[in-house]
Design goal:
single chain; about 750 residues; alpha+beta; 8-stranded mixed β-sheet; 5-stranded antiparallel β-sheet; 20 helices
């Protein structure tokens, strides 16, 4: 009889009730568990747990695993009951049983990263009474019914930036909006705070004293991030700010110093930075000891969130904007300005130039006199003359003729590829042009790169050292791409179908030119000797960008995983997952775009040019006063990125006999018989060519950029009478509106 009872129990357990996939994921994330945690406890594979949570086509656990999984979910549901729906009537809605802490918010953005077509969330597995709301703090419906009915609830912000800190329990930022006469601050995780401030100075006071906003420091010697307040159009009106700039204000990039709000701040003894009150205003009082008083403002209607990088973020309702910026802040850092500015600030946050030391006599902490190891230091460093852009003051000592245009033997030209060639007769018989895009190519180029940390030293007739960062004047015109080393073996190629790895336009060098270390090292890798004539080298060096790369890589991979594109997919599954991924969650797609822009913009800032300021050639401009104005680092990253791509092209050509038609930065186009990358990439048993192109989402791997017909390519080139029109520029959607001028 007991055996019969056991069999009955097993039958019941095999059908244990389980919540829907969305709820399974919500409960796991709420408790801070990873897929690996669940897999380890239930003794199954990580992919199995991921499939149980899949909102597209979830699989169901069976046998003893189902009973254990049901037991786990039931206990988690008791700890984290689903939010009780509430209707906003002007009074605070009941708070959830317990708002997610920063630590619990890890990975929590995935709880809403589902398609808009999904059915509503199921009823909670287990209900629990809601806790009483914190005074002045409530969880409200996170979309305003007067603005956008049916908008999704804002998700918690993702992986926290650093350790949890009770000073910042409400997250890194808040979007301040006005609804039905009430001022509300939408924070990350769906939290909404009532804002009592009647003026902008009092809003700054409230932010610093009561809002509990901010972000822990990213490195030991660093400092926490200042709180960010985003003002909607309604909030701008409430606090006396213009909703948009006039033409004069747009040109100046700020409102006038005589504006009434600026005067209010001055009377309250608040200060603005030299940039004044613009789209990204910093309001502060001089720090007293370790007590820093500073608030960052972001005003989207003043174009703070550039649509080129943030899409339509500026038009989102407050709760959804808080979600977008919150995910970005938690995974990258709290925005400090444009994505380019934030990319540069992230470098400094991970490698602060100074650190505190304790005075041996007084025991008081003070700023160290020496720079923090691995940082760029506190002061600016002049670049070498060959690294200087036109108009830089170091060039005045060269006494160059007026209007002189420096050539490759005088100026370092390390830029991304812009190269194309006519198609061969054999390629014209094929049907398709297929574009491959290298994921986060410039971030991958920064990974593990040894860069200079100090001043350059001039050396005559040096022996080339591939481990020594710098700029080298060397003749590489003897490198013949028809016969090169690919790995340890010499291979014979059709050099006329390959771009030179040494110039952005792919032209073969004709004499001595300046190159960054990775470019010269690649000439050696191809099997050729190099003999530099002179060099500017930096003996103090380090892998300054490693932490920066890792932070941005993790942010990118986590957000793409939320969009259904995981790092461990098979090639075909990867192509399927990336097809239309942007439509699955448009808000998270904005975050992906911003992360990519942070990479490119941050590297671009390393060689920022004058921005008006009444500058004249030969004079210093403001960016030169930063320790992070380092054109040599930018050149080294671009050099390595271009070399990484060329190495893959050579490997592919040596193995398949296929050559690229066009290359634009991180996109390369091949002719193929089929429309898919798998129609020409040499995969064997699911494994790619070693050292060649590999499909995947990790930085440095490639995804499908787009496919057009060979007839389209020939027709476009014929229409513009341009046999070398760069088709990589239009391979994504096939749209060519004007002749390619290289811009």
């Amino acid at each position: 009889m007991s055996e019969m009872f056991d069999a009955v129990d097993a039958l019941v357990a095999s059908r244990s009730a389980l919540p829907l996939a969305e709820e399974r994921k919500r409960l796991r994330v709420a408790h801070g568990l990873t897929l690996d945690d669940i897999a380890g406890a239930l003794q199954v594979r990580r992919a199995t747990v991921s499939a149980w949570e899949s909102t597209k086509k979830p699989t169901e656990p069976r046998g003893p695993e189902r009973e254990a999984y049901a037991r786990l979910l039931k206990q988690l549901a008791e700890l984290y009951p689903a939010p009780v729906p509430a209707t906003f009537t002007g009074t605070p809605a009941p708070a959830e049983a317990r708002p997610l802490s920063t630590g619990e918010a890890s990975e929590a953005a995935v709880t809403t990263a589902t398609e808009n077509t999904q059915t509503p969330a199921p009823a909670p597995v287990a209900a629990a009474p809601a806790a009483a709301p914190h005074p002045g703090r409530t969880t409200r419906p996170t979309s305003s019914t007067s603005r956008r009915p049916g908008a999704k609830k804002a998700a918690p912000a993702g992986t926290p930036a650093g350790d949890t800190d009770p000073r910042f329990e409400n997250g890194p930022l808040a979007v301040v909006d006005v609804e039905d006469g009430k001022v509300l601050a939408y924070c990350t995780g769906g939290l909404v705070l009532d804002v009592p401030a009647k003026s902008l100075p009092s809003l700054v006071d409230w932010t610093l004293k009561e809002a509990k906003l901010g972000q822990p420091k990213l490195s030991g010697p660093g400092r926490p991030a200042d709180p960010l307040i985003v003002l909607t159009e309604a909030a701008c009106e409430r606090y006396g700010l213009p909703v948009s700039f006039t033409a004069e204000e747009k040109d100046a990039g700020r409102i006038p110093e005589g504006h009434k709000v600026v005067k209010q701040l001055t009377r309250a003894e608040w200060k603005l930075t030299k940039r004044g009150f613009g789209p990204w205003a910093r309001i502060y009082r001089p720090a007293k000891g370790s007590d820093r008083q500073c608030v960052q403002l972001c005003i989207p209607s003043w174009n703070a969130l550039d649509a080129r990088f943030w899409g339509d973020a500026a038009q989102l309702p407050a709760a959804e904007l808080a979600r977008v910026l919150g995910v970005y802040a938690s995974r990258v850092m709290t925005p400090r300005g444009s994505t380019a500015v934030t990319g540069l600030e992230l470098m400094t946050a991970l490698h602060p130039p100074t650190h505190a030391v304790r005075d041996e006599d007084t025991g008081v902490l003070r700023q160290a006199e020496t720079k923090t190891p691995g940082s760029l230091g506190k002061g600016p460093v002049d670049c070498a003359p060959c690294e200087a852009p036109d108009g830089h003051p170091v060039l005045t000592a060269l006494d160059l003729p007026r209007f002189h245009v420096r050539g490759p033997a005088e100026k370092l030209f390390e830029e991304a590829y812009d190269w194309a060639r006519p198609m061969t007769d054999a390629e014209c018989t094929l049907r398709h042009l297929v574009g491959l895009d290298v994921n986060m190519a410039f971030a991958a180029g920064a990974n593990g790169l040894n860069v200079g940390l100090g001043e350059p030293t001039h050396v005559k007739n040096p022996v080339f050292d591939p481990k020594l960062p710098g700029s080298w004047l060397v003749d590489l015109s003897h490198v013949d791409l028809s016969r090169v080393k690919a790995g340890k073996e010499w291979v014979v190629l059709d050099g006329s179908l390959l771009p030179s790895p040494f110039t952005p336009k792919g032209d073969r060098p004709t004499g001595p030119a300046w190159y960054a270390t990775p470019t010269v090292a690649y000439a050696q890798e191809l099997g050729y000797d190099v003999a530099p004539i002179e060099a500017w080298v930096r003996y103090e060096s380090g892998r300054y960008l490693d932490g920066w790369y890792q932070r941005l890589r993790d942010a990118y991979l986590a957000t793409m995983a939320d969009l259904g594109v995981d790092a461990d997919l098979s090639p075909q599954d990867f192509l399927t997952a990336t097809d239309g991924y942007k439509a699955r969650d448009p808000e998270l797609t904005i975050v992906v775009s911003a992360i990519k822009a942070t990479v490119k913009g941050g590297l671009g800032k390393l060689r920022e040019r004058p921005r008006g300021e009444g500058w004249r050639p030969g004079e210093r401009w403001r960016a030169l006063e930063r320790p992070t104005w380092r054109p040599d680092i930018r050149a080294a990253v671009i050099s390595r990125t271009r070399i990484n791509l060329h190495r893959k092209i050579v490997k592919h050509a040596a193995f398949t006999g296929q050559y690229p038609i066009a290359i634009l930065s991180d996109c390369v186009v091949y002719a193929a018989n089929g429309p898919s990358p798998l129609d020409f990439l040499p995969y064997r048993d699911g494994k790619p060519l070693p050292g060649g192109f590999k499909l995947g989402i990790n930085p440095g791997l490639v995804k499908h950029e787009g496919t057009q017909s060979v007839l389209w390519g020939e027709e476009v080139r014929e229409r513009f009478n341009a046999p070398e029109l760069n088709l990589a520029r239009s391979i994504k959607d096939g749209t060519v509106t004007d002749a390619d001028n290289g811009e």
